[in-house]
Amino acid sequence: MQENPRAQRTYDLLLKALTDLLAETPFDEIRVTDLCERAGVHRSTFYAHFEDKRHLLTFGIQELMDVFVPPSPNHQDFQHALRRVFKYFLKYKQEYTHLFLDPRNASAKDLFRREYIRAFRGLLKHRFPEVPAADQDLYSHYFIGGLLTLVDRWLETDTTTPPDQLAAQFVRLIPNHEDIFGGRPPECENPSL
Fold first, then answer.
1. How many other CB atoms sit within 10 Å of the CB of residue 71?
2. Which of 45, 55, 160, 192 is deepest in the core (most CB within 10 A)?
3. Is the dihedral of CA 4, 5, 10, 12 positive or negative?
4. Residues 89, 154: contact at Cβ < 8 Å?
5. What share of the chain is helix, strand, coil (3-state, %, to 5)?
6. Low-confidence residues of the chain: pLDDT under 70
7. Taking the model in full, what pTM does it have?
8. DSSP of 51-119, one letter per residue?
9. What pLDDT digit, counting tens, does each position of 26-46 carry?
């Protein structure tokens, strides 16, 4: 969506407003009016760029997607990307703690999870077009579910664990990660389970 510097400034202001408001208010209670007032942006400007607050959140999630999905992944890029993801969550710990752990933000967290799965499924489809879509879908749900569960636990209990250590632990727990990021497709026995 990066069109020009003026548009980028608007996006930055609105994303900052959303981030700030999430630290104070559940996502479902945030209104577009609240976002515009906090960002100092007119409602017509908001709607010129976004359909609604969910669209804005989806746009913001894409920033993290860009951090996570390396352009030409391999095993080393994968672990490095995971470190960047955990560092990103640590940098925005307060905001993501509210987003992920407050049950009143369940719809926003679900949107986040679905966007992450969609992006990871796209990575698998691009790298391994021969793998059946059902297998790509199953592995994407498994992988992203594990990653976000680990992020939840980390935010909830112990962000003193360094991102490098957390990334290494996650890599050890995920089967087939070397296959996916080293060039071999994931194996799934029965995608209908």
1. 6
2. 45
3. positive
4. yes
5. 75, 0, 25
6. 1-3, 63-64, 66-77, 175-193
7. 0.76
8. SSHHHHHHHHHHHHHHHHS-SS--HHHHHHHHHHHHHHHHHTHHHHHHHHH-GGGHHHHHHHHHHHHHH
9. 898 999 999 999 999 999 999
